[in-house]
Structures are given as C-alpha cells and as structure tokens.
Request: fold
Amino acid sequence: MDSFSTLIRTASHEQHTEAETSTFMSDLLGGRLGVEAYARYTEQLWFVYEALESGAQRLAADPVAGPFVRPELFRVAALERDLEHLRGPGWRASLSALPATRAYADRVRECAERWPGGYVAHHYTRYLGDLSGGQIIRDKAERTWGFAKKGDGVRFYVFDGIGNPAAFKREYRALLDGIRADDLEKQRVIAECKKAFALNTAVFRALGEEFPLSA
Reply:
C-alpha cells in the first residue's frame, strides 16, 4: 500500500502540473514578462504566507498540524525584504490582493482556525513547492532581472535555516506518513491539496489577465 505522502503527490499531480504550466508562470520563467510582473506575483505570495504563518503559533501544539510548524520554513520576513527591494520602503502602502489571492488566503486562514488537517494540506503544497520548483524561479529571476545571487529580490526562495533541502523533504514526507489522521481524514486532506493547487492556479490566471503579452 502506498504511503500517505505518495498518495498526496500522485492524487494532486494533475492540479500541480496545471499550476506549474500556467500561461503566466510560463511567460514569467520564459523571460517574456518584466520585473513588474514578478513584483506583483511576490505581492500575492505575501498575502498567502501571511495567512499561513499568522496562524502557525496557535497550531504549534496541535497533534495534527503542530509537527509541521517549523520556523525555518517561515517566509513572510523574506517576502517583506524582497518587496522592499522591489517596491521601495513604502511597499505596504501600495500592497493589494487580487480577488483570487484573497480567496486563497481566506481559505488558508479558515483551515488554520478550524481544521488542522486542511492547514497541513496548504502547508505541504506551499513549502515543499518552494523547496523544489521555487528554486527554478529563483535562478530565473537572478539571471533575468539581475538580482544578486540569493540576495534581496529572491530571498523568498532562500532557506538559510535548511542546510540539506533533500534531507528536509524526506523528513517532511515522513511527517506526512505519520500524520495523526484516519483514512477518511486523509482523503479530506488530499482533496484540500487539490483545492490548494486550484486556488493557486486561479491566482496565476488572474495575474495572466493583468499582464497579457502583446499579440
């Protein structure tokens, strides 16, 4: 029988692929969009991670979600440093969430407040993605827009507290395999993973509409 971490990965593969291959992300990684699109994307990430991390302390002692609350993963401070670099010291004044981003952040916050298993689903889809595919975005951003290697502008993708990402991901998957949940709850968590990818894809779609390529 497959492990829970394997079940999550395989069940959400289609949604994961759809998010990764969205028009906006393809254009961004292909160098067809300017740094303004990258900055706008970074703004949207701030809202999602603020929702994830503002509820983390409350869940630290929770038997289901608590083992996943790892300060070395936290991204809000790095995002804020990136936004100051991208937008200037007054970046908060112009910060705005797209409706799709607001829906995504609201769902994350709802899970953090009411459903630890759902919180784990969003935690998994975000942070393991950052440690994996996020590194492709960092590399592309450094080369496309001239950010210093692992410097301001791409600090969101730099996990200084994780010396061995591959080992960390193995440990994380072991936590998933040992999650305190019955089979029905595990199916609910898998469904929420799919929803998380769909919410993320909706943000990419909205960004694509805001930054369409000229015909």
Notes: The mean pLDDT is 92.
